[in-house]
Design a protein that fits this description.
- This protein is an alpha+beta fold and about 210 residues long.
- The chain has helices spanning about 10, 15, 40-50, 60-70, 75-85, 130-150, 170-180, 200-205, and strands at about 25-30, 35-40, 60, 95-100, 110-120, 120-130, 160, 165-170.
- Helices cover about 40% and strands about 25% of the residues.
- The strands form two sheets. Strands 3-2-1-6-5-4 form a six-stranded antiparallel sheet, sandwiched between helices.
């Protein structure tokens, strides 16, 4: 017996994942023949948290796309729907994509959406707002770029090694030194201890 998506555990777990409604794991079903999308309560809560009011549980797919999907995504969404339609009878159908929603003010919100075949002509999907996760990634990338600029702006040899020998930070001066003295090509995350003379590796681990 098929479960209705409104009672799916993968959706109900959303309340444990993040108390903020806009970050709930939201569910939906898409009828590929009628082009109707049916969304669950967590999906409605997510859209409401983005500023939308009176969101219906069921609507034509075109209405959903025009109302909630960022304009730049239209062509890509059409291709993914065409891909799903071509595989409407394939029980192994699965797709995963990042979708740019828009909030009521027009700001972009990034969501990861996974879809799979529920039965012929019907696909099920779950999505989650990952906007803040992407912002954190951008901040970390910027911080790493700043750190790299600092350690490369000196003539000193700079490196950081964990107690287990894992190389976590180094500049090009250290990389050149390792190549010149030990004929070793280093890379981030490598265990550097085996490349060093025993006398040095023993000092580092003692």
């Amino acid at each position: 017996m098929e479960k209705n998506f409104e009672n799916d555990d993968s959706v109900s777990l959303s309340n444990e994942v993040n108390p903020s409604k806009q970050y709930l794991i939201s569910g939906f079903e898409l009828d590929l023949d009628a082009l109707k999308i049916h969304i669950d309560q967590s999906h409605i809560d997510m859209l409401s948290a983005l500023g939308y009011e009176n969101v219906p549980e069921s609507m034509h797919l075109l209405e959903y796309v025009e109302r909630f999907i960022h304009q730049e995504e239209m062509e890509r969404i059409q291709k993914r729907i065409a891909y799903a339609s071509e595989r409407r009878d394939d029980p192994e159908y699965y797709d995963r994509m990042e979708v740019q929603l828009k909030d009521k003010s027009g700001n972009v919100c990034s969501c990861i959406v996974n879809t799979w075949s529920l039965r012929p002509g019907i696909i099920k999907g779950v999505g989650q707002n990952i906007t803040d996760l992407k912002r954190v990634k951008e901040i970390i990338t910027d911080q790493n770029s700043s750190l790299n600029s600092v350690i490369e702006s000196t003539d000193d040899i700079i490196f950081i090694v964990k107690c287990n020998g894992e190389l976590v930070v180094f500049n090009n001066n250290f990389k050149t030194m390792m190549k010149s003295f030990f004929n070793v090509e280093i890379f981030m995350g490598m265990n550097i201890l085996p490349a060093l003379p025993d006398s040095i590796s023993e000092q580092w681990t003692s």
